[in-house]
Amino acid sequence: xxxxxxxxxxxxxxxxxxxxxxxxxxxxxxxxxxxxxxxxxxxxxxxxxxxxxxxxxxxxxxxxxxxxxxxxxxxxxxxxxxxxxxxxxxxxxxxxxxxxxxxxxxxxxxxxxxxxxxxxxxxxxxxxxxxxxxxxxxxxxxxxxxxxxxxxxxxxxx
Amino acid sequence: xxxxxxxxxxxxxxxxxxxxxxxxxxxxxxxxxxxxxxxxxxxxxxxxxxxxxxxxxxxxxxxxxxxxxxxxxxxxxxxxxxxxxxxxxxxxxxxxxxxxxxxxxxx
Lengths: 158, 107
Fold this sequence. Notes:
The structure holds 2 protein chains of 2 kinds.
Chain A: E1 5-8, E2 15-22, H1 26-34, H2 36-43, E3 46-50, E4 56-63, E5 69-81, E6 85-92, E7 100-110, E8 113-121, H3 125-140, H4 145-156
Antiparallel strand pairs in A: 1-2, 2-8, 3-4, 4-5, 5-6, 6-7, 7-8
Chain B: H1 7-10, H2 14-22, E1 28-29, H3 30-35, H4 41-53, E2 57-62, E3 65-70, H5 72-106
Antiparallel strand pairs in B: 1-3, 2-3
């Protein structure tokens, strides 16, 4: 069976390409990325701020049951064209991973299907590979319980 | 064996990637591999050494010749390391699709 979500990470390049087809109109797909209450539902974190406009910004946050912040990420929205594309940066706070640049393209296939293309550009090839390797490293370091927890938490929030 | 080398570093080089592609269909001697590249033979030898050190290639003695062939298991390891990341996004997008279908039907 063909995989719905495809990941392309060519050796030696500091970028990755994620593509996915949806049984959703391009309008709904775009909404899923721009309506805070919808973003919260599929990303699984709180949206503290989301200004869908040129030079706007956004911020995601996850807290535990006691209100302690477990994860926070933010970025600047460079450009938004409705139902077409979003250009923005993304940075996870306090993780040591540098900011990345994201080009998110939305395309209609038919009136009720669409395609998403996400191109993520990293600061360096090594930064990209470290990001990609996180869950892989997790697999081979299973013995280290605490580390595993931290990594899986971090990873869930990417 | 040089432990500083890892497979990801090994495949970051375009010549080394081409060597792996070349060996995907059949095993070859260093001489035959080198004849496929413009690069000087000692340079190709160096690449072969790196690929062998990080276990992407295996050497096999056949008579007087040494043949290089792909280590499929190690190659699989590289392919597999991307899978968790892909799966993460796949799960997330499945959720997105579900969320939006619910949203649509409520309207």
